[in-house]
Design a protein that fits this description.
This protein is mainly alpha-helical and about 325 residues long. The protein has helices at about 10-25, 25-35, 40-55, 55-60, 65-70, 70-90, 95-105, 105-120, 125-140, 150-175, 180-200, 225-250, 250-255, 260-275, 280-295, 310-320; strands at about 5, 215, 220, 305. The radius of gyration is 20 Å and the shape is globular.
C-alpha cells in the first residue's frame, strides 16, 4: 500500500457493496447460457475476453505499466482473474458445489493469516469476528452438510481457488499510486484471456448461442447481451470496485465484506430466476451480513491518510509538540 493511501469506511463500503452486486450477478446472467448448453469454461472465457476487449484502450494508454510493474500485471492475471475461475471449476467437477464455494471463500481467512503471520501486522478483532461469522453463515447458506462427499484432489483444487482469491485482496492492496487500478485489471484480463483460452479452447465455443434469444426472469435477451453484461459489469466494473474497496478498507476488512457477494447472488437468483431459500439458508444470509457489517467497522469512518514515513522526520522538526492532527 502506498504511503499516501487512505482508509475510509464509507467510500470503501460503498465500493465493496458495488463489487458484491457486480460479482454476485455473474451466476444469474451466466445461467441462461449454461442452460443452453454452453460449457462453464467457455462462459468464463467470454467474460474475461470481453472485459479485456472493453478495457483494451485503457491498456494501450497505460502500456508503460508493462515495463514498470510486469510482475504485478502477470500475477493479477494468473491468480485473481484466471486462477480463481479455473481452480473453482476444476474443484466442482470432483466435489459438491457448496463445499467448493465454502472452501474458495476461505480466501479472506488466508488473508488474515498472511497479514498476521507473514507481514507481522496487527489484525483487528472486528475483522476476525466478521470473517468467522461470514464463514459460518456461508456454511448455513450453502447447507454444506447435505450430500457431502469429499475428494482429496477436489478439496486441494478448492483450497487453491481460496489462495487465488486471497491473492485478489493482497494484490489489490499492492496496487500503489504509480499504477492505475483499471489498467492493472485491463492487463490482468488480457493475461487471463490467454491462460483460460488454453483451457477452454474458445474455437469450440458454440457461437450460434450469441445470437439466440435466452430467457432471464421473464426478459428475452440475446446471448451477446448476456455476455456483454458479464464482461462489463460482472468483470470490469466488479474488479475495479473490488480493488477500490480494498485500497480503502484494507485486504482483511474487504475480505470480510466480500461475503456479501454470495448473499447478492442468492437474492438476485431469487428475484430473476425464482430460486427460493429455506429458513436455514435465510439464517445463513443474515449471519453473513452481520459478519460483513462487523468487519467493516474495523476501518475509521473518516478519512485516515497514512503519513509519508520519509517526510516524517523533517516534519517533526517544525511541528510543535502540542499540535493536534
Amino acid at each position: 500500500m502506498s504511503a499516501h493511501s487512505t482508509r475510509h469506511r464509507p467510500t470503501g463500503s460503498a465500493f465493496a457493496l458495488l463489487a458484491a452486486l457486480a460479482f454476485g450477478g455473474s451466476g444469474v446472467f451466466a445461467r441462461p447460457l449454461l442452460d443452453a448448453g454452453m460449457d462453464p469454461l467457455h462462459v468464463t472465457w467470454l467474460r474475461v475476453a470481453g472485459a479485456a476487449l472493453i478495457l483494451l484502450p485503457v491498456a494501450l494508454r497505460h502500456r508503460d505499466l508493462v515495463r514498470r510493474r510486469p510482475l504485478l500485471l502477470l500475477a493479477y492475471g494468473v491468480f485473481p482473474m484466471a486462477g480463481v475461475q479455473a481452480l473453482y471449476f476444476a474443484a466442482v467437477a470432483r466435489i459438491p458445489v457448496g463445499i467448493a464455494l465454502l472452501l474458495e471463500f476461505l480466501g479472506p481467512v488466508l488473508v488474515l493469516l498472511w497479514v498476521r503471520v507473514v507481514r507481522k501486522d496487527r489484525v483487528s478483532p472486528a475483522a476476525i469476528i466478521g470473517v468467522v461469522l461470514a464463514v459460518a453463515g456461508l456454511g448455513l447458506l450453502l447447507e454444506v452438510w447435505a450430500g457431502m462427499r469429499l475428494d482429496a484432489i477436489g478439496v486441494g483444487l478448492a483450497l487453491g481457488a481460496a489462495a487465488a482469491q486471497a491473492a485478489f485482496f493482497l494484490l489489490g492492496d499492492a496496487v500503489g499510486e504509480d499504477a492505475d487500478p483499471l489498467a492493472v485489471i485491463a492487463f490482468g484480463a488480457l493475461v487471463a484471456t490467454v491462460l483460460l483460452g488454453v483451457l477452454s479452447r474458445p474455437w469450440n465455443l458454440p457461437w450460434n448461442l450469441m445470437a439466440s434469444p435466452h430467457d432471464l426472469g421473464g426478459l428475452t435477451l440475446p446471448g451477446w447481451a448476456l455476455a456483454l453484461w458479464l464482461a462489463l459489469v460482472c468483470t470490469a466494473i466488479a474488479y475495479f470496485a473490488g480493488v477500490s474497496a480494498i485500497k480503502r478498507l484494507s485486504p482483511q476488512v474487504a475480505g470480510g465484506v466480500a461475503y456479501l457477494e454470495v448473499v447478492t447472488a442468492i437474492v438476485m437468483a431469487w428475484i430473476l430466476l425464482g430460486e427460493s431459500l429455506n429458513a436455514t439458508q435465510l439464517l445463513g444470509a443474515v449471519v453473513i451480513v452481520t459478519g460483513a457489517f462487523i468487519a467493516q467497522t474495523a476501518v475509521p469512518s473518516t478519512p485516515e491518510t497514512v503519513p509519508d514515513q520519509t517526510a516524517e522526520p523533517a516534519a517533526r522538526q517544525v511541528r510543535p509538540s502540542s499540535e493536534h492532527h
